[in-house]
Amino acid sequence: MKTLRYYGQEDLRYEEVPEPTPGPEQAKVRVQRAGICGTDLHEYKNRPCWLSHQPNPMTGRCMPVTIGHEFTGDVF
Hints:
This protein is mainly beta and 76 residues long. It has 1 helix and 4 strands, in the order E-E-E-H-E.
């Protein structure tokens, strides 16, 4: 699937990534509309504050990442 990945300050890249498989108690959403929150905008314009190139101790995730949580769509 296509996604916009965040690599660092003012560095977004439109890329192909594997489609995620939902786990238990999760659902897939076909996104219809998306926005950007203030935190994501701050990360993009200024510098990474909450995101890091080092793995997160709880999730193991690190940059590059697909950021964003302001969206609506259809569950399927």
